[in-house]
Amino acid sequence: MVRLGSVKSAAADLHVSEAAVSLHVGQLRKELGDKLFQRTGAGLAFTPGGLRLASRAAELLGLQDRTILEVRQAGDGRRLLRVAASSLFAEHAAPGLIGLFADRAKDLDVELSIHNPSHFETLLRTRAVDVVIGPRPPAGDTTLATTHFLNYQIIAVAHPAHPLAKAPPTASALRDQTWLLGPTGASRADVVLAMLHRMNVPEDRQQIFQSHAAALQEAKRGKGIALVVSFAAAQDIASGDLTRLTGNLLQAQGTWNITMLGGGTAPSAAAELTRFITTPRATQAMLRGGGTTPGRFKPSIYVTLWN
């Protein structure tokens, strides 16, 4: 349901009835003591617990698909680059970057998986992935090689008729709003969550969607305030479908960095991507890729979701 966005689509994909899916969901809710998700006009809004459960399920399926892929590729003599990224980068910037990079090497397949940035170091050290993209890891670790390549800005947007669109809101007014978030809202190592903490927004005022684009659509319907990457909302702001809210608490700066194991131990493809990601062509491709879903990836690029 996280991947497809609805119970109906999930039932069709599994070749079972909607009633069967609803029955299993009801059993999970009872067993886990969590509502898991609620229906909205833009699709399903997941609770933090529901998002974590979905990530674990996707992890199991991803392990199966990845094993099959690696065995086949080993026999064909192809290279595989395994990239882990934060959900924010994966949705808004990865499609353009990875598509362009993969086109340059016909013997290379790229697997993109979405992870909580707090797991990046473990993923690299256990060699579960070859390179990670997202927030900069803690400073002082000389065994990791990190390259900064892009700054981004998080802003708050809402429907032009939203009550807080007229003037900078007070801190108490912000706490009382409905906040529409993509999967990054569940990550402890992300700029978005830090902004919510600064505003003291309670968890019950946060709605987490299966994608950042879905959260943005809900904001366009007047359902609340979305925290988004500025370039991803630029077109909607220019067209008047959204307005940017002003105030010191409603903007923050973030950085995207690429990290791999140092000392020449990383695969050659990881070093190739690190060099390429800092080029003007790569930057242009990332900025054009805002809002593109994983379904737009070419066949040579494989996407899996992890917690």
From TrEMBL:
Domain HTH lysR-type: 1-47
Transmembrane annotation, as ranges: none
InterPro entries per record: LysR_HTH_N, LysR_subst-bd, WH-like_DNA-bd_sf, WH_DNA-bd_sf
Keyword DNA-binding applies: yes
Swiss-Prot/TrEMBL keywords: DNA-binding, Transcription, Transcription regulation
Keyword DNA-binding: yes
Coiled coil ranges: none
PROSITE patterns xrefs: HTH_LYSR
Entries under Pfam families matching the protein: HTH_1, LysR_substrate
Superkingdom per UniProt: Bacteria
Family membership noted in the UniProt record: Belongs to the LysR transcriptional regulatory family.
Cited PANTHER family: HTH-TYPE TRANSCRIPTIONAL REGULATOR, HTH-TYPE TRANSCRIPTIONAL REGULATOR CYSL
Protein name: LysR family transcriptional regulator
